[in-house]
Amino acid sequence: MAFRRARPLAAGLVSAAVGVSLVLGGTDTSPAAGRTLTAATAPEPGPFNALTDVPGIRVGRVQSTRAPYLTGATVVYTPSRPLAGVDVRGGSPGTWTTDTLDPVNANPGVDAIVLTGGSDWGLDVGVGAMHWLEDRKGVSSPIVPGAVIWDIGRGGSEQARPTASWGYRAMQAAEDGPVRQGTVGAGTGALAAAGALKGGVGTASVTLDDGTVVGALVVVNALGTTVNPKDCTLLGAALGIGDEFAGLRRPSPAECRPVTGTPQDGTNPAGNTTIAVVATSAAMENAALTRMAAAAQDGLARAIRPSHTLSDGDTIFSLATGTGRRLSNADPHDMRALTRIGSAAADALSRAVAHAMIEATSVRKYKSYCDTYPSACVHLRR
Known about the structure:
Order of helices and strands: HEEEEEEEHEHEEEEEHEHHH
Strand order of the largest sheet: 3-4-7-8-6
Shape: globular
């Protein structure tokens, strides 16, 4: 099955879940966008409906599906070194340099964030990204936090995993345009529903009525299922904006055999973890970013059931690339903007989970959502 290309999505009306963030008419001055509004407009996806719609963010990837490999890495390159936050909810996380992002510690900003396969061996990818920053950009002490998913052995060998050279090449390939989704990058060996479905990389964005952009990128490798057991639809697609999921249908009754997240034969029930990056064009203090990452975890809980289990290492990083006065948890005047941005991040992450499942392609014995429920995807735009 051929890879699907990332595509811009048409804007439209916002779903009710996103609509709670709207300013309902009148004139408003937005601390996030720094400008006066004369009328409310409905949020809509950015031009790429991707994390790269947030200014100052580039995404690169490297992967291999050639036996015995089935793994990859994704980097989020941030040349302006914005502040970052992190929230870890899973019981089996694999991370590095996350303490640097704690609000009580010195946080000068990050040069990149790494999401990778390879379990704990994926740390090598972060080191490779650091070497690229030193060699190509002259960064003497790169700050590159990261998180891993477990995909060890899914291609046939436990030694076939990403190395430092993969991180170097992913940084070299980082771009600010469309982002390929599905069985690419860190999602190459990802699975969902305890191995019953192929997982992958997904991304989504939204431009709020004040011009603030919020984006998400996720690697879905979950113990839980992304499928509604009642009708076999994707849970995250319910939050789609306008015709974002145009053509996606409810599977036929004959095909609807719900996956419940029960471990399958030959599947390691501990080999899970969904990892993600959410970002905004607003400027934020570190504590506000940490709260944004925490709010975004609700996006996983809405799109993956169950989430945050002892067998998952669910980790979300957050970035704020804006300049000017930083929104603060301590300023009551900023509460409204921070609430809206956090809500948008959660919704974008739910949508990104759905895109990851739709764009994933079957590899070897691992079947994608669209191959498991072909009637759901037959009318999707390509």
